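anyone seen this seq b4? input:
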Amino acid sequence: MLHRAVRVVGMLALALLVPALAACGSESQGKNTDDDLVDALEVPESGVCRNLTPDDVALPANATATVPCSEEHTAETFATGELPEEFDDAEYDDTELGHYAYRTCSTAFATFVEADESLVLRTTLSWAWFRPSAKAWGKGARWYRCDVLGGSTASATYRPLPETAKGMLAGRPPDVWLSCARGPSVGEGEKVPCSQKHDWRAVTTVKLGQPEDTYPGDRVMESRTRSFCSTSVQAWLNYPAEYEYGFTFFHKAEWEAGVRRSVCWARTSE
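predicted toks r here
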């Protein structure tokens, strides 16, 4: 039997961890801001929509004006709330704040779009989170806002979302919202929606640990991922004699944020 493993360690959907764990930078709060939202102290409204760009999402705080969800938009707020008391005296860029936001928003995201653990890692949808501005934080504001996005932080632009993203991944999601890649390997290829011409499709994920487990190290992660993905992709392809597969495994920062899965890719144009 011939099969070829393609080593891939780049980020997929979890590129969203970058803004989640980033320290604060500029006091900019995005483009087309609403003066009433700039430096807001109160918990933001949920269920509202905006036209966000990757540049907006790269910032820790956002005050972009909302638009009617019936109009074109690239982001929808699906969860907001007060931060726990443990962050009352926290620094603005406390790493634990990012970990809390990841756990909270990722759980709410999966429920909102109706995706299981595997599909969450294989969709072109992602989410971003925002905190109060540094000025508002200094005045005691302690809230978070989670927005679903029509793309990931690897996207140059975001795709428009439907009127609501609630339940949009239920059942069999359309290929436009599933992750594929075009190129000689997953790592070297361009990530594209599966509705476009592609050479690789993210077909399954494999679970590599329990919530209480410590990170086993990159070498163990790669070895386990390679072995499990070989078997998983072969089964997905209906046990061909020859096949090619790739994989994406994540590292310590993602593990500590709660990620326990690797992504398996099949060489296919289907």
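The radius of gyration is 19 Å. The first strand starts at residue 2 and ends at 6. kinda curious what u guys think
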